[in-house]
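Repro case for the chain-ordering regression, as requested:
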Amino acid sequence: MTVTEKDLFLAILAMDSYNRGYDAGIKDGGDADPDGLGSLGSRIGNAIVSSESNTAENSSEVAAGFYAVAYQTQYGTVISYRGTDNLAVFGSGESGSDIYNGWVQGAGRYGGVE
Amino acid sequence: MTRLFLIPLVLCLFALTACKPHETWRQKLTLVVETPSGEVSGSAVVEVSGDMRMLLQIGNEIAYSVRGEATLVEVLPGRYLFALLGGSEERFYAAARDRFAGMKREEWLPRIPDQTEPVSLLPDQVPMLVTFDDVAKPETVREVNPDDLAATFGAGVEMKAVTLEITEEPVTEGRVEGVLGWLRPLWPNRLDGQRFGTIEAENRLANSLETGHFSTEIKK
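-- result from build under test --
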C-alpha cells in the first residue's frame, strides 16, 4: 500500500487534535497552557485551525471529555476529533471520562453524551 | 502464567501514582485601580485543585480544575473591568516562583496551600482583562491593556496593583452574574452568540470568549 503525502498529512491532523484545546498532550506554554499548540488561527504546516469545540470548564464538551477541531487545508476542510485520551473512569479535573461517556455507547448505551 | 506477573506490576504502578499529591486551595485575586474620584478595588476568591494521581490514566502530569468567577471592579459608574479566569491554575506558582526554586511540581504543589504572603503580579502575569462598551451586550466586549487603562476608561485611570494571595475565604459567587445578567441565558454559546469558535467570526474577541471565562458555575 502506498502512503501518499495527503494520507500522511491527514494522519498528522488526526493526531494533532490531541495536542490542542483543553488537556492537550503537548503544551508549549507550560502545564496550565489552555490551548496546547494553539487555538484558532494557528497553523500546522499549511493547514490553519479554523474552528474548534468549546474548551471552557463549564462547557458540555469538556464535561463529556469531547474535543474536535477543524482545519482549512489544501485538501479542503478537515475535521479531527479525539478518541480516548482519558482513562480515568470518572474523569479527571473538569474533563469527563471517555470510558463513561464514550465506550459505553459501544455496549449499547445510546444516550451517552460524547 | 507469565501474565500473572503483570498484576503486581500494574498494582505497583497504581501505588506509585497514588503517592502523588492532590491539593486544593483558594486564592484571592485583588485589583486596585486609581480613578479621578479615588481608588477602587475588587477581589474574587477562586478554588483550584491540582491532582497528580491521574498519571497513568490521562498521560498528562497533572489534572487541574477551577471553581469560581472572574474578578470585577466598577472602575467608573456603570463601567466594569473583569479579570478573567483563564490561567488561574498555576498563577500563584508563576508569580511566586522564587519561593519554589529548584522544586519539581510534586514538591511545590503541596506547599501552595501553606503560603501566607500575598504576591504581586507582574504585567505578563495579570489575567486577561476585558470590559464592555455596553455591559448589557456581550458582543461589545473589549480587551483592556493593564498598562494603559486610560485608553479604555479615560484619563486618570490606571492600575495600581494586582495581587494574589492564598486564603481560607469562601469562593466568590454571583457577583459577575449580578452584573452580566446575560451569562446564563447565553450558555453554551460564546459571547458573539455562536456555538463554536471559528476564524470566520466577525468579532474574533467575542467569539473567543465563553461564559466559562467569567464563571465556572454557569451551566445547566
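Ordering looks correct now. The first strand of chain A starts at residue 43 and ends at 44.
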